[in-house]
Write a structure and sequence with these properties.
The chain is an alpha+beta fold and 304 residues long. The chain has a single domain (2-295), classed as Sulfite Oxidase, Chain A, domain 2 (Alpha-Beta Complex). It has 8 helices and 15 strands. It has helices at residues 17-29, 60-63, 78-82, 107-111, 140-147, 185-188, 241-245, 288-291; strands at 2-4, 45-46, 55-56, 92-97, 103-106, 117-124, 129-139, 155-160, 180-184, 194-199, 202-203, 213-215, 228-234, 269-272, 279-280. The strands form 3 sheets. Strands 1, 6, 7, 10, 11, 12, 14 and 15 form an 8-stranded mixed beta sheet that branches. The chain has a 5-stranded mixed beta sheet with strand order 5-4-13-8-9. The chain has a two-stranded antiparallel sheet with strand order 2-3. The longest helix is centred in the N-terminal third of the chain and has 13 residues, at 17-29. The radius of gyration is 18 Å and the shape is globular. The two termini are 22 Å apart. Bound molecules: ligand MTE and molybdenum atom.
């Protein structure tokens, strides 16, 4: 896992990928990156701690044209086309449940004053493909602290916009809408958990969940709910979409686990987008040193 300082340009600035990568090379070479290792002669290669093989950034083109976002179609290349006309502004986030500050917040107000960061994370889809994405965003913990969950709050539920006029995929019953996800509050407050507002130094593309999406790098990608309009603190575990639809295939926890196969395919290996050979999948997607303690005492085969 790599955590870097906020980029030196606002995330709204458009940076072509080659320029972006040269800036990264400079930052890394200058030694200002936190935890990033400079790779002589291969500045584009990023080496993730704890993993023997190089983790190269997945090209912007792939990150933004190979998507899962059923609100905009079920094909991988549907969202890039179908979401092009989506306008993710103005955007309001309703905060509800067990907290001291329930209200409707303009997105800018919700995030105001929270320092933006860049996080390079592996994204491992439950379908056994993966990418490496440089996100821009803020720790979810900072948002949660602002909303002040009370002592009853044990979970947080995050809900996608439900607006079939703007999200054509919602005119079909492929999933019960809206898409809902949730985390235990300690997972939500873990320093690795972010809400992203950008990637590659640019404003978050619509197909990646503009204007606000969750990123939980040690869990399967379906936990990372897009286009969030509601944050609700609950006492009980929220009913989450994929878990509700197919509970034997998609657990609430959905921690990446090569030892627990999906009923219809193995989770032992994954195809990194852009690579030919499949690579081994790592427990907790390679972030176990930082997150395994969250699950001490749990049987992760049973609570998958
Ligand atoms: N609202 C919503 N969020 C969603 C999905 C979706 O269909 N709808 N797909 C999930 C899945 S399965 C994955 S793998 C990631 C994909 O994120 P990306 O397209 O930005 O790579 O988004 C997740 N978030
Ligand atoms: Mo996924």
């Amino acid at each position: 896992m790599l955590i870097r300082r906020p980029p030196d340009v606002p995330s709204s600035a458009v940076t072509p990928e080659p320029l972006y990568l040269r800036r990264r090379e400079f930052v890394t070479a200058a030694g200002t990156a936190l935890g990033a290792l400079a790779v002589p002669g291969a500045a584009r290669a990023l080496v993730a701690a704890g993993q023997g093989r190089e983790d190269r950034l997945t090209p912007f083109e792939d990150v933004t044209t190979y998507n899962n976002y059923y609100e905009f179609g079920t094909g991988k290349d549907d969202p890039a086309r179908t979401a092009a006309a989506f306008v993710p502004r103005p955007w309001t986030v309703a905060v509800a449940g067990e907290c001291a500050r329930p209200a409707r917040y303009e997105l800018d107000d919700l995030l105001r004053g929270i320092a933006a960061e860049e996080r390079v994370y592996r994204l491992r889809c439950v379908e056994a493909w993966s990418m490496v994405i440089p996100w821009n965003g803020v720790p979810l913990r900072a948002v949660i602290d602002r909303l002040q969950p009370n002592t009853h709050a044990r979970f947080v539920e995050l809900t996608t916009l439900h607006d079939p006029a703007r999200m054509p995929g919602q005119r079909r019953d492929v999933l019960p809408w809206p898409y809902v996800e949730g985390l235990r509050l300690d997972e939500a407050r873990h320093p690795l958990t972010i809400v992203a507002t950008g990637l590659y130094g640019r404003t978050l593309p619509n197909q990646n969940g503009a204007p606000l999406r969750l990123v939980v790098p040690w869990k399967y990608g379906f936990k990372s709910v897009k286009a969030i309009v509601r944050i609700r603190f609950t006492r009980e575990r929220p009913a989450t979409t994929w878990n509700a639809v197919l509970p034997h295939e998609y657990g609430f926890y959905a921690n990446v686990n090569p030892a627990v196969d999906h009923p219809r395919w193995s989770q032992a290996r994954e195809r990194r987008i852009g690579e030919f050979l499949r690579r081994p999948t790592l427990p907790f997607n390679g972030y176990g040193d930082q997150v395994a303690s969250l699950y001490a005492g749990m049987d992760l085969r049973r609570e998958y």
